[in-house]
């Protein structure tokens, strides 16, 4: 706690000095030194924060690059199978269809391993958060607002929507 400074003549100079200074040192010089120390500390803290920000950004970019390379590397075997299917001699359509079905299974498995799940739509109530209604049709077999047909499958990544299902919805 500092004591009030009294400007009465004849008082001792040490009584007028700010707390923390000793008699014989210039109080203004002590304040300047403190200011310089605080300024230096502020500059160092700002530099440390800037370095931290740059490091975090660099690490984030590296994680994204690694994830991207990993995903793309997982797609390459599927691309190889598609190229082999295109190079196969034409002839038996059933053999060709089975090959394409195997490639589709590979892709579905890759997506499943990555946490991607298809949205179940047919027979469910229309939900605009997960479904995009592109057609409405009257139906006695389906209740009002029920998804009758899936025109394009939708997918979720965990709890996040990747793509909504395009659906045909029943109306009364």
Average pLDDT rating: 85
Largest sheet: 3 strands, antiparallel
Unreliable residue runs: 7-18
> Per DSSP, what share of the residues sits in E-state strands of 2 or more residues?
15-25%
| CA-CA gap between termini | 82 Å
- Strand order of the main beta sheet, please? 1-4-5
Shape: elongated
The helix tally amounts to 2
Tell me the name of the CATH class of the largest domain: Alpha Beta
CATH topology of the largest domain: Hemagglutinin Ectodomain, Chain B
- Structural class based on helices, strands and sheet pairing: alpha+beta
* Helix-strand topology string: HHEEEEEE
Going by CATH, the architecture of the largest domain would be Alpha-Beta Complex
Name the helicity range: 40-55%
Total strand segments:
6
Write the topology of this structure:
Blueprint: H1 27-87, H2 93-113, E1 116-118, E2 131-138, E3 147-152, E4 155-157, E5 160-163, E6 165-171
Parallel strand pairs: 2-6
Antiparallel strand pairs: 1-4, 3-6, 4-5
Helix pairs in contact: 1-2
Tell me what you see in this structure.
48% of the residues lie in helices and 18% in strands. With 172 residues, the chain is α+β, with helices and mostly antiparallel strands. The chain has two domains: 17-114, Hemagglutinin Ectodomain, Chain B (Alpha-Beta Complex), CATH 3.90.20; 117-172, Nucleotide Exchange Factor Grpe, Chain A, domain 2, CATH 2.30.22.10. The strands form two sheets. Strands 1-4-5 form a three-stranded antiparallel sheet. Strands 2-6-3 form a three-stranded mixed sheet, with no helix packed on it. Helix 1 runs antiparallel to helix 2 (93-113). The longest helix has 61 residues, at 27-87. It is elongated and about 100 Å long. Mean pLDDT is 85; it is low at 7-18.
């Amino acid at each position: 706690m500092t004591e009030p400074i009294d400007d009465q003549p004849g008082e001792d100079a040490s009584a007028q000095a700010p707390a923390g200074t000793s008699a014989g040192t210039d109080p203004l010089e002590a304040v300047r030194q403190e200011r310089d120390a605080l300024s230096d500390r502020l500059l160092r803290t700002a530099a440390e924060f800037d370095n931290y920000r740059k490091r975090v950004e660099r690490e984030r970019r590296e994680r994204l690059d690694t994830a991207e390379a990993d995903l793309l590397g997982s797609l390459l075997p599927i691309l190889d199978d598609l190229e082999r299917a295109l190079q196969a001699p034409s002839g038996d359509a059933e053999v060709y269809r089975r090959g394409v079905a195997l490639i589709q299974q590979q892709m579905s498995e890759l997506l499943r391993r990555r946490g991607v799940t298809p949205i179940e739509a047919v027979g469910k109530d229309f939900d605009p958060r997960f479904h995009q209604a592109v057609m409405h049709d009257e139906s006695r077999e389906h209740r009002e607002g029920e998804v009758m047909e899936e025109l394009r499958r939708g997918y979720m990544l965990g709890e996040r929507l990747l793509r909504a299902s395009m659906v045909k919805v029943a109306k009364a």
